[in-house]
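Consider a concrete sample entry:
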Amino acid sequence: MSSPDHVSVNPRGIASLNSPFSFPVTVQRLLDTLAEHGIKVFATWDQQAEANAVGLAMPPTTLIVFGNPKAGTPLMLAQPQSALDLPLKVLVVETAAGEVLVHFNTAEYVIQRHALPEHLSANLAPAFALIERALQS
């Protein structure tokens, strides 16, 4: 089983990885993996279609908004402003060169940004592991 290219994290807490799959397959694998693990998908936005609808060009770009209320609610109870970053999001983008990239905020970023107790990162980490798992071939 091969895994996606190494996850890189920028200084702003955004994790990025290359998908070994095409854009539509990457989006579907993410949706399927989340569903298989009982993670609710609240919304899926085809941002390319929205741009096209107003006469603008955009490469394939989809935002998936997902979460698990059992995991996210304790964060929001500890710090209501954390709801600005919850539910979680994963962004899939296809570059002009045909590379498919997957981006998401790290658990550490969410914890630090909202001054949440460190132990609550355990509520977020499994979701990010699922993103990586979805990109394994």
Q: What stands out?
A: The beta strands are 8-9, 14-18, 40-46, 61-67, 88-94, 100-105. Residues 27-134 form a domain with the TATA-Binding Protein fold (CATH 3.30.310.70). The mean pLDDT is 94. The helical segments are 23-36, 47-53, 69-78, 107-113, 121-134.
